[in-house]
Design a protein that fits this description.
- This protein has about 500 residues and is α/β, with parallel strands linked by helices.
- Helices cover about 50% and strands about 15% of the residues.
- It is built from 20 helices and 19 strands.
- Strands 1, 2, 3, 4, 8, 13 and 14 form a seven-stranded parallel beta sheet that branches. Strands 6-5-7-9 form a four-stranded antiparallel beta sheet.
- The protein starts with 6 loop residues before the first strand and ends in a 15-residue tail after the last strand.
């Protein structure tokens, strides 16, 4: 199960700080964390990057609305995103901020100069429709019949200005080929098709990569031109380079990204701009990011999440109310990793009660309580292999993670939970332990192996719960990952894994 010589570099997109964290970003953080934890269990050298996107007109406007200077505002909101990572239990992550004058801004300036020196950036006049919400000039397909942005439902701004342009026409066919041939892989498959369709819609047009300073105010200056600021998406995408330690010895150990988890609304920027910028900066085709894993959006009880509707769900409040692993479970099980999902408080509590409290929690509580009261039935039990009794399930679980179907992976774990509950009921273990301790011992041994497999497979998803299950059979996740023979000592958890909801 170990790949000790391998590395795994995984990123989220970076969160735009014009508003506090919402539940959709919490889901993306958890998806990346699952991939990171899964690959660490395999013994790989994992680097997880997340952070905040802190420049642009929307940020300047949000700061002004809060009667704050942009620097003070981004410091405040970035701290909230960092705190969310901690609250969700995101593991061993590096947090990059695009306003960082030491690690990020110099890298953006250097990459800009590389592209300018090869003639891939040039000055020209741009005329088009700009959406402040998207921080982008929109294509015709992205504007509705009323002249509004299809995503933000707001009027676009007709803009004519002198900007710098990126020679996308030079790289478009190559990027399209790399996507088509899965050198630059996009999953799920229907998102790959969406990305390829963008090339036919966009053609091979060059695009603007700067804005006049008076139009944006808050951003990174174009090297050698103090009147222009670098377009926020150039700045933002290069975080994956700067955050990996570009210019240091660590960079070559980490690069390229093996998986980049993003939302469907920013597929265009990541599928087109991102690889083209890298090629223009001298990165070779075989040294580009390996995969974009694209998730959908979360609606709230059938409606789009919106401040005006008052239905924005604060993930920090959810964690306080339901506990960390319950929030992780719901967002990773109920929300399809590769498509849109719907959040419902009623459904959350249904999942909590059925799957966590009555399913997994009750299973661990019952079995360990029976083992404690019937010690003669659990003597000498040894786990011979963590996945010895669950190889077929684990293969399905592994395939689901590889395909970025994390919700399916959890479904496979719950097959083991249900199988174990059924084994207790079918054997009437509470009676068998009294009448036939030797017969009960065989059931306990089977359950111990299944508990080990459940704990190991849950570790990337519900790390605290997985550790408690491992402790309940007298071991820990590190030992389980080592797959060594483990002498079982059933121990009842001090408190219920998932107490009843109040």
């Amino acid at each position: 199960m170990t790949h000790a010589s391998r590395k795994f570099y995984v990123t989220t997109s970076i969160a735009y700080v014009n508003a506090p964290p919402h539940i959709g970003y919490a889901m993306e953080l958890l998806q990346a964390d699952v991939l990171a934890r899964y690959h660490r269990l395999l013994g790989e050298d994992v680097f997880l990057l997340t952070g905040t996107d802190e420049h642009g007109k929307k940020v300047a406007e949000a700061a002004e609305k809060n009667i704050m200077e942009p620097r003070a505002y981004v410091d405040m909101i970035a701290a909230r995103f960092d705190a969310l990572c901690f609250a969700l239990g995101v593991s061993e992550y590096h947090f990059i901020r695009t306003s960082d004058q030491t690690t990020h801004v110099p890298v953006v300036a250097e990459m800009w100069k590389k592209m300018a020196d090869t003639g891939d950036i040039y000055k020209g006049e741009y005329e088009g429709n700009y959406c402040v919400g998207c921080e982008a000039f929109l294509r015709e397909a992205e504007i509705d019949e009323e002249g509004k942005c299809r995503i933000h439902k707001k009027e676009t701004q007709a803009v004519r200005e002198e900007n710098y342009f990126f020679k996308f026409s030079k790289y478009a066919k190559k990027v399209e080929q790399l996507i088509r041939e899965d050198v630059f892989r996009i999953i799920p498959e229907f998102r790959k098709k969406e990305a390829l369709n963008l090339f036919s819609e966009e053609g091979v047009r060059d695009f603007s990569v700067s804005r006049p300073k008076e139009s944006v105010e808050w951003g990174i200056p174009v090297p050698g031109d103090e009147h222009q600021l670098i377009y926020v998406w150039v700045d933002a995408l290069l975080n994956y380079v700067s955050g990996a330690g570009y210019g240091t010895g660590d960079f070559n150990k980490r690069w390229p990204p093996d998986a980049q988890v993003i939302g469907k609304d920013i597929l265009r920027f990541h599928a087109m701009m991102w690889p083209a910028f890298l090629l223009a900066c001298g990165f070779l085709e075989n040294n580009l990011p390996k995969m974009l894993a694209v998730h959908g959006h979360i609606s709230i009880e059938g409606q789009k999440m919106s401040k005006s509707l008052g239905n924005v769900v604060d993930p920090a409040e959810l964690i306080v109310k339901y506990q960390k692993d319950a929030v992780r479970y719901y967002l990773l099980r109920e929300m399809p990793s590769d498509d849109d999902g719907d959040f419902s408080f009623a459904r959350f509590e249904e999942r909590y009660t059925a799957d966590l409290q009555n399913g997994l929690g009750n299973l661990v509580s019952r079995v360990t309580a029976l083992a404690f009261t019937h010690p003669e039935a659990v003597k000498g039990i040894t786990i011979s292999g963590v996945l010895a009794h669950a190889k077929e399930i684990y293969q399905k679980y592994e395939n689901a993670i590889t395909a970025f179907q994390l919700h399916r992976a959890l479904e496979h774990v719950w097959v083991l939970v249900e199988r174990s509950n059924k084994a207790v009921e079918d054997a009437k273990l509470w009676e068998l332990a009294v009448k036939d301790p030797r017969g009960a011992s065989k059931v306990f041994a089977e359950l111990a192996h299944t508990f080990a497999a459940i704990a190991y497979m849950l570790a990337p998803f519900l790390p605290e719960t997985a550790e408690k299950i491992a402790v309940a059979i007298g071991t820990d996740i590190t030992a389980l990952a080592g797959n060594t023979g483990i002498v079982v000592h059933f121990q009842k958890p001090a408190t219920s894994l998932f107490p009843k909801l109040q």
